[in-house]
Amino acid sequence: MTPTQRGREILNRRTSGILLHPTSLPGSHGIGDFGSWAIRFVEFLATSGCCLWQLLPLGPTGFGGSPYQCTSSFAGNPLLIDMDSLVEMGFLLSHESDTHRTPERDSVDFAHASAAKSTLISCAYNRFVDSRNQTVRGAYETFIDAHAWWLDDYVLYEAIKEEQNGLPWYRWPQDLLRRDTSSLDKARSRLHSRLEYLRFIQFLFFTQWNRIRNIAHDSDVYIVGDIPIFPSHDSADVWAHSEIFKLDKDGSPHVVAGVPPDYFSKDGQLWGNPMYRWDILADQGYEWWIQRFKHTLSMVDIIRIDHFRGFAAAWEVPASESTARNGEWVKGPGLELFRRVRSRLGALPLIAEDLGHITPDVEELRLELELPGMKILQFAFDSDADNPYLPHNHTTDSVVYTGTHDNDTTRGFFESAESYIREKTCSYTGRSQLDLPWDIIRLAYASVANTAIIPLQDVFCLGTEARMNYPGKQEGNWLWRCTPDRFHFDKTDALRTFAELYGRLLK
Known about the structure:
By secondary structure, the chain is of the alpha/beta class.
């Protein structure tokens, strides 16, 4: 059975999992990473009877730390590299790593993590350059050869951006902005040492992540990854492939992505990502998307497609607008893209994020592709018995969540919900008073949906203080971390009991 076949099989079984981004793990350098706590979390999942670990995108983040605004769709986030593993490799000394340790806190310290890990990885790189360890050297050379197709553009983008004092690529000198061949050759020569260092960082990231994923597989735990439909404007993707985006000659977008006013925001959400030129992508055989799916599936076992509806039609907003109100729906590639992907890669294990303004064409596309959609229990109790998020309306081709990274925690949601929502939830569950969030977790496990995913915040009964993201809010997101004192294995018994009771153990 191939890995993609295994992923599809898992989606067709009754299973459960936990949503937790690695940055939210405990860790000693200001942020969660691929260190010992990631391994311990895999143990937590396996003991709980959960076979799925759902992540947010793992790419390098820009300002604000949003994993949905990465500087590459292919590279990994350096902040996730574990320093203790570099000590084990002999590239750091214990006291060097210890110097930059910080007390465990319940929020990410992006500034400290970035400064500390940059210093330590630079030290590790210097030892790597001087090292005679041919095994590691050989693995490094193999890595850069295998990934050169995206890695060369990414490291050049990052190195030039550093040289340009952090300016986005569309504010670089014209010869670099337009990727003049001679200018890029000169930049490669001028920045050669920096390019090698940036390649080394990616080598460390993928080496460590592959180790974590292999440990997970040994415990029958599989990874649900995430593909944001639109890359960030200031990214290696848009710089290196500007022809597939709706941009002016100076690199600025004609229109940007967003969503119209909805549950999350009265003005909609203005994301600012450039929109695709689907006609150019079609002429290229959708090669960029094929490589994106292929690469992501080399890292994870199942892919959640964020904003799936954008493949049917996307909300385009003039770049001059300050909100997302004045946009229009513009048709996407629909089945054509997925047929081309399937012809090259086969049927893939995908989850369609089909939340928000869903029209019949989006549902038809999802059903034609036989992809499971998402059911959010926090949305279930604000209307009548026909509400599609109520468990009695679920279908097997669904992934049910108590909430997602964009929602409040379940405890926080119900504590602040209007009284009629709490009353209806009590009536639905047959309770005079809710046991939050466990009554809602039980509903998720009892659902006929094949897959049930619970955010770790709900497992630990946390309130609004543990919310991960506020859609439409520019600051204060992506910060929550689980401190070691909360990481009790006593919750595993309750989760395993539910998994056994509702037939969600992977056998």
